[in-house]
Amino acid sequence: MTIVEYAKTQGLQATAVLSKDEQKALGQFMTPSGVARFMAQRCLPSEEQKVVRILEPSAGAGVLAASVVEALLSRTVLPDKILVTLFELDARLITALKSLAVKMRTEAKNKGVSLSVSIRNEDFLLAAETRAARPIADIVIANPPYFKLNATDPRALAHPYAVYGQPNIYGIFMAACANLLLPNGRWCFITPRSWTNGSYFAATRRHLFRSLYIDAMHVFESRRDHFVDDAILQEAMITWATAQANPHLDIVVSSSEGSGDLSEARLMRLPLDKVVSQDHEQAISLPTGADGLDLTLWDATLNTYGLKVSTGPVVAFRAKIHISEQKADGTVPLLWLQHINRMQINWPINKKREHIHANGATTWMLVPN
Questions:
Q1: Burial letters for 29-61: b for 16+ Cβ neighbours within 10 Å, e otherwise?
Q2: Most buried of 177, 208, 266, 360 (most Cβ within 10 A)?
């Protein structure tokens, strides 16, 4: 069994005891093997580098670190030493990580490579090394947890340079890891796409662009087909970057439907200023599929045509006392993006929380039929 498949098997056994609610609360969603290997291939240092330090800050079952080790050991020219550091907050996964460490050491020894693993059962964002922002890694590879934090959460307070409004924890992971790379180190994250724009992630983006050169991005067109082992409905992307590198002129943008067609990913090379806005927001605009649209050619705005854009008035986590799992007297449909199809609304679809109570407290949230 390969190192990656071993990590995946151990992880599936460890997470089988978690309910979906626990997975969501912890952000424990395992990276599929194919996606992990795809991420790792672009992370590898030059073959001349004899000592490689790998950091996985939210390890889970360690699939991503395993994919980097597997890729390094498959090279013609091998490193002399590999140092792996795995942070994982959930104690239930530590046994699986220890077992993976034995597997990796054995495979490396068989190739004549020295490999050591440090497993840290603690909160990465509050760890001494993270807070000190001292470079410790040649490769950082991560599938971080994603959930919103209160701005007064200790993890948000520990990293104010990456926080604006109500932050999402994955943005803080991205920014904190940018601080830990050694010169020319490689940084790779699989995350939701929400960090690419909007004010809540502006501080994260600015920090990343100060610390890294983002050289490649991969977009999953499907909201369903990337985390194939978990029922996740989320727009996802992979981002690769280099620390303290001379900035290039282009970013490679690739796309696929999901994890099954990565080998057929569509590629395009775009100038940096076509992808990243040059203002204070530094928002990222990613063309997807084969459209190749150049938005700079558009000479009108939505306002030109009398259109306005607004987020929905219902913010689920603030209105949770008014949202219901079941239809009842006084409830009305609550529409989510999953209900919206081309030129039609499909409701209900047996999604959780499809109903909202219509009462005096929610009047301002409701819209006319």
A1: bbbbbbbbbbbbeebbbeeeeeebbbbbbbbbb
A2: 177
- The model's pTM is 0.80
Return d(Cα 82, Cα 292) in angstroms, integer: 41
- In order along its 369 residues, the chain shows pLDDT tens digits of 999 999 999 888 877 766 666 656 555 578 899 999 999 999 999 999 999 999 999 999 999 999 999 999 999 999 999 999 999 999 999 999 999 999 999 999 999 999 999 999 999 999 999 999 999 999 999 999 988 888 899 999 999 999 988 889 999 999 999 999 999 999 999 999 999 988 889 999 999 999 999 999 999 887 554 444 444 446 789 999 999 766 667 899 988 877 777 877 788 888 888 888 888 889 898 765 445 556 667 788 888 999 988 777 888 878 889 999 889 999 999 999 888 888 899 999 888 889 999 999 999 999 887
Residue 19, sorted as left (phi over 0), alpha (psi -120 to 50) or beta, turns out to be beta
User: 339: exposed, middle or buried (C-beta count within 10 Å: 0-12, 13-18, 19+)?
Assistant: middle
Neighbour tally for 136: CB within 10 Å: 18
Which alpha helices (H) appear in 263-321, and where do they start and end?
A: 272-275
> By the 8 A CB rule, do 172 and 180 touch?
no
β 137-142/51-56 pair status: parallel
* Closest to 88 (Cα-Cα) out of 145, 6, 137, 135: 145
User: Inter-axis angle of helices 3-15 and 63-73, to 10 degrees?
Assistant: 170
Is 10 in a helix, a strand, or coil?
helix
Judged by phi (left if over 0) then psi (alpha if -120 to 50, else beta), residue 321 lies in alpha
Instruction: Output the CA angle 108-111-113, nearest 5 degrees.
Output: 55
Angle at 131 between CA 129 and CA 134, to 5 degrees: 50
Chain Cα centroid distance, residue 100: 23
Q: What backbone phi and psi angles, to 5 degrees, belong to 191?
A: -145, 170
